[in-house]
Write a structure and sequence with these properties.
Elements lengths: L1 H18 L14 E5 L7 E5 L2 H6 L5 H23 L12 H17 L1
Antiparallel strand pairs: 1-2
Amino acid sequence: MKNAFLFTLLITFATISANAQNFDVPPNPEAGKCYERCFDYNKKFEWKEIDCSKIKEQNTKMTTAQLSEIEEKKQKMQQYQQKLKALGYEVELTGIADNKTIIAHHKYLKKQKKKK
């Protein structure tokens, strides 16, 4: 009886941890390497390794063109989040590809793939 309870408890925790995906950090990051979040509206979310000197460049002052490009990307993401929300997915309209948006995006792509 005790073994059955422990087995059930183990399966429950394994299932919960398998479903709890976190897209805030890359899977299996290596020390000393830098990564960038890459979001494509037609593909699954992924992390790409980048040159660490790019991060130092990002901390400098931005030009007006760079700031307007960031704002355009944010608005495009908000429109995509509105689309996902209208389709019934649980997302917040932040303009940022957060965990909820990425999970909804993956579900949306999977649903689109099934339709084809």
